[in-house]
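Regulator of MON1-CCZ1 complex: structure tokens wanted.
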Amino acid sequence: MGEEDYYLELCERPVQFEKANPVNCVFFDEANKQVFAVRSGGATGVVVKGPDDRNPISFRMDDKGEVKCIKFSLENKILAVQRTSKTVDFCNFIPDNSQLEYTQECKTKNANILGFCWTSSTEIVFITDQGIEFYQVLPEKRSLKLLKSHNLNVNWYMYCPESAVILLSTTVLENVLQPFHFRAGTMSKLPKFEIELPAAPKSTKPSLSERDIAMATIYGQLYVLFLRHHSRTSNSTGAEVVLYHLPREGACKKMHILKLNRTGKFALNVVDNLVVVHHQDTETSVIFDIKLRGEFDGSVTFHHPVLPARSIQPYQIPITGPAAVTSQSPVPCKLYSSSWIVFQPDIIISASQGYLWNLQVKLEPIVNLLPDKGRLMDFLLQRKECKMVILSVCSQMLSESDRASLPVIATVFDKLNHEYKKYLDAEQSYAMAVEAGQSRSSPLLKRPVRTQAVLDQSDVYTHVLSAFVEKKEMPHKFVIAVLMEYIRSLNQFQIAVQHYLHELVIKTLVQHNLFYMLHQFLQYHVLSDSKPLACLLLSLESFYPPAHQLSLDMLKMLQSRLKTTCFSIQYSAFLNSETSVCEGAPISHQGNTVKNMLLFSNRFLETKL
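Answer:
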């Protein structure tokens, strides 16, 4: 299998740490994404490394017993270490503050601490088997202040640092989950919900395992992912991943079911808003995109893998250290190893090999694995690094070898311009809000972010169309049809067409002596009137004498339209009407342009090429 067939890969530069062994214990902090290598309880050294840390943090601490959990607060200001089931020790890493340890015991009598989570640089949560305790750490006083607590029986817990939500497992079956949200010194109790367990034989007692639950943010929304294994008593063909949407307000709701169609051992990651499911038995992975259309049964949407199952791209571990010799070959990494531990959203750790990787999605191989161009475009438009891949797909579908049909090309252009129009509308709304002074009264008002999914006319012209029209082997009717299809799509979304696109059409028509067609396009306003277009027509007089009169008529029409617009604006109050202008032409004219194009150019576009 070639490199072009793998759509998942491990990052090139992993975090390398000392392997786990009887002397060295390895811990992972899900909030700071840091790996702690603790030797001899810290007496012989603690080394902390993270994906974004250029310089690791190294220090020593007294060996006061086995370390159960160790984490830095956000910004690495305070270190917290749990060595017993009753207390957590703290040490300041703030300049000019005492580095003497101080200790906090859990408040609930007879409770055992299951773990702790930092929610800010000075706020920490203890999770015990009898509830939850929210503290503020006062480093200068070397003490903690209890802010809030809540009592309930807890089996296990899970923390999502991106959304600051802690999930507590309660009840005997462990399947009733109680979420808490933390923000700026406040702890909010969210509505609890129940995970539906699969049917089980009467001889066995079903329960919800912590291994089968994950929390992740997908498309800006928090989901609880439940890996429901295949049940022998059910008619299910295999395991499935059930997604429960956990909103800030309102009840948690089952929204999506991802069909795996296989059984065995699984692990979950979320990469670029895609749910990645690893299958250890076959050493392959599949990806799901909940934004793509699925099968809706009235309450939940069922999804199947976007692509065929593939292994993660083979990874070579480089030889490093003083013993490394240039002639030594890199060592192949054992993928899907039983020693792998997966953390959300995209982290894979091999404690036995001493590596932390970020899992990544490769978009280029997906282009050839997803033949449906419409579905491919829906998929690519949701990815972070999609721009150049989308432009490559557009060029590919206009090539002689992989030429797509006009309806497919039209679909792709419409999907691109739909995203383009959404961004233009958001920009316009933001500009109007700023002009009205709403930015001062509403601090939450933010300028819309231009993602790579926004491909404007300049992008398409520069990377796709300008090279496309130069291809000598391409039938000129097809070239003109594609150009008109893109302009038609822009008009349909009421996006003002830039003059260089009209120039491209006119130059192509003139190059092939299609003056009659040019005349028709202008007469029926398939090409919108503009000053640059009128000037271009004037320059064509030597090739096509009627172009001179067409240019004068266009300039006269533009002048007349400008006077009408000014008059309408001046007397708008009296006329009780509003005039919207798009590139100097009223919206009604733009609407006529779309109708004219649909009536006139569609006949041309449907011509047998």
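Residues 238 and 262 are 4 Å apart (CA to CA). The chain has 13 helices and 35 strands.

Cheers.
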